């Protein structure tokens, strides 16, 4: 038997919004320590990694490890049926064909019960190697979202350059060039608004803005986003959710044309 009850059900709705446009179907792996998901996007360009720890649920029960093959679009439609203040319970049997979602209003006067068929998804669990990053940038999630949105109006790619002075995001397109520079320890907004940088080596890498913009759909989950960048390694974009876990996205850098030549 598997059962996980999330008192702050709106979190599950936000997690779904952060995943559904990138990943169409994935296995939710349920163990005694929590729920995890790891999946490539449909183009096999980016990777999503999600962890929901068992102690973030009340109660949490998982008698044996199970894998729930879920169609994200279907689950997202069901999650939209839950109100933001509902308590959400996910329940399934040990050899599941279906998964059940139960939405309870805070006063328990309304209970909604949705049963969804599971899929048989053959997926390979990719080992994510530990990486020594050249720079780790922590900044307000809302500011990162704004930068991605604004620079998307200029070009398709963003160059992230990090050095001792701070971090710069730049884009180039037919209309011209856009640059946004943030200084180390700059306060962008008063709450959780500081930019902090752990710098081992200066680094400059280019990424597809389309995917970074997809990643910013996780902004409602956390006030701060962490970008971990390293030469010739995928950037790790992490939104850490207090008391329950995190969602991480990985995206390989674009190879500069001069390197190709």
Automatic annotation (TrEMBL):
InterPro entries membership: DNA_clamp_sf, Pr_cel_nuc_antig, Pr_cel_nuc_antig_C, Pr_cel_nuc_antig_CS, Pr_cel_nuc_antig_N
Residues covered by the Proliferating cell nuclear antigen PCNA N-terminal domain: 1-125
Location of the Proliferating cell nuclear antigen PCNA C-terminal domain: 127-254
Gene3D superfamilies: DNA Polymerase III, subunit A, domain 2 (3.10.150.10)
One of the GO biological process terms: translesion synthesis
Pfam families the UniProt entry points to: PCNA_C, PCNA_N
Superkingdom of origin: Eukaryota
One Gene Ontology molecular-function label: DNA binding
Classification via NCBIfam families: pcna
Matching HAMAP family: DNApol_clamp_arch
Similarity-based family: Belongs to the PCNA family.
Protein name: DNA sliding clamp PCNA
Origin species: Trichoplax adhaerens
